Amino acid sequence: MPAILEHIQDHEAIELTRQLIRIPSFLWRESALGRWLADWMTRRGYEVELQEVPLADGGATHQAIGRLRGGGGGPSLMLCGHTDTSDWQGAVFRRDQWRHDPFGAEIDGGMIYGLGALNMKAGLASMLTAAEAIRRSGKRLKGDLILACVVAETGGGVGALHLIESGCRPDACIVTEAGNLDVGVISVGYVQGKIRVLGEFKHRVPYVNPIEKATKVIGAFSPSYVRIPPKAEGGWLRYQPHPLIPGYPSMAIRHIEHHQDVTAVTFDLRIIPGMTEDSVREDMRARLERIRREDGEFEYELLIPQSDQQPNMPAREATPLNAPVVAELIAAHRQVTGVEPRVGAGHRIGATADTCHFKGVGITCVEYGPGYIPIWPMVDECVSIEQVLTATKTLALTAAALLT
To answer: Which of 154, 156, 208, 149 is nearest to 176 (CA)?
Structure first.
């Protein structure tokens, strides 16, 4: 057994996952968990910063950043996970259908159950326990090891953006998203927004009904999450297909609301490298203008992003396989499991991650973490204990190879 793994006790990652599940941390309401994590790292001797992250509504939430200092003679590494869990209008998704207490952290059949177990408190526990193995080993670090427990990944990566703005620039980063232990070197981004269809508010003819007009918007875009062909092949989006992300870009209408003379259609468009928020805005406007030319009563407003509080997630190019963080991660997974990991977009194809923001400022990023996502959001969210332990050991070996 490699020496670094002697400093890992299996029960620690399991119990830490359970403890994190017991602390509710819905999107935008993560301060209690942030403070708990800051205290956990402080008591173990990390340099800790509890960052206040301002929100667009005037409020704030908090994220914990820990650091083990290196001597400066080598690259720095950040392990990053988000503290926000899925929410269903501020509550647990379909709470009445859960068989397990969402905050009970119960163990059943080799799985840990609870809200956030999969996405992504197991990833947080794995990276924190891996860092503890590094600290306990007493090995001198060449570069810093940073533990970033960031907020609001599902809110557009607000916490990651705040961390970047604070000046954090490690050489490499592993985001411990639930990827079924695949090595994710590329992921999609998304552009989310609203199309507000304008009508009239009266009870007589002539009457421009925005609900009826909104059906034209829905019909103008492709069926939900079916690949949209490029404009050169008869589609309405301009892009070049990407070999590592087959089946994308794709789009779905996610929500419709109506009040008096306005019907608002909310959409989610998953994009690939080469596409941008600006290019999508132009392509969508062209599509909507076509409806306007065909229907003189059609009026609309296109809002991208969907709110000031939630930015969109850009799509970045793949991290090279020969990047040290990727090569060492693959080698570590092989050493722990005896098999080669799946490399590419992996299990998380179609999902976004904070890697997009870190890549945007030149940080070499890869995704690797425990948990298989069959559907999202999910009732009785759970994560495999075996995967939590594998991820912990793989992350510890990778960090040791890069930093010591």
So the answer is: 149
